[in-house]
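Request from the bench team (R.T.):
"We need a structural guess for the complex before ordering more zinc ion. Sequence and SMILES attached. Just send the tokens back."

Command: build protein-zinc ion structure.
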Amino acid sequence: MKMKVQNNYLTVNAYSRPGKKIGIITGIVVHWVANPMSTALANRNYFEGLKVGKKNSNGSIIYASSHYIVGLDGEVIACMPETEVAYHASSANSHHLGIEVCHKDWEGQFVSPIYETLLELIVDICNRYKLNPLTNVIRHYDVTGKNCPKYYVEHPEAWEQLKKEANKRLQKEEIEEIMIQLNGKEKKVTTINKEGTNFIKLRDLADEHIDIGYDKEKRIPIVTIK
Ligand SMILES: [Zn+2]
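Reply to R.T.: structure attached below.
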């Protein structure tokens, strides 16, 4: 794994890190920071600065934060543990992790290495919480209708592509050779590791006590213990 997550937690405060326990995590909400060329640290520090109770131009107090910020160089800052609620997508906050993503211009496309890191982070989270990237990874837009993350609201096909790529990486099968002990003897077998389970090739289990055959008529493998 190339991605390095730097924990730089916000101070617990009412406006950006309420310290409330998050519910069962059912998804991820992706955002853009809406501030071209701003760094992950600058955005983290912006969230930290909200602790004094800052107001926006309408005079209402700003509540904002996210669990992760993906930076321009592909760095990742964690603003709080995943066990806590962040303020990023109103009604979705109680069951979703938030990822803010830095971008280079007002178009807001996530380019390399930002894109790669975002994918890696999404795949990592989906793997740990058993989420489906195609259905459980959503845009801020999908929750509130806000134009966020802008490029992926205006280019829905690019958003679909991002989710498909994450799903492909999550499903990627890891083929490797491992040693197993079979009837008291060590034997090298080929395995496919899928979501934490090793699947062993049936034919690799053949030894002097086990016959592996194939019934061509019925088209089924035959396992015989001698
Ligand atoms: Zn947003």
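Two things stood out. The CA atoms of residues 58 and 193 lie 54 Å apart. Residues 114-129 form the longest helix (16 residues).
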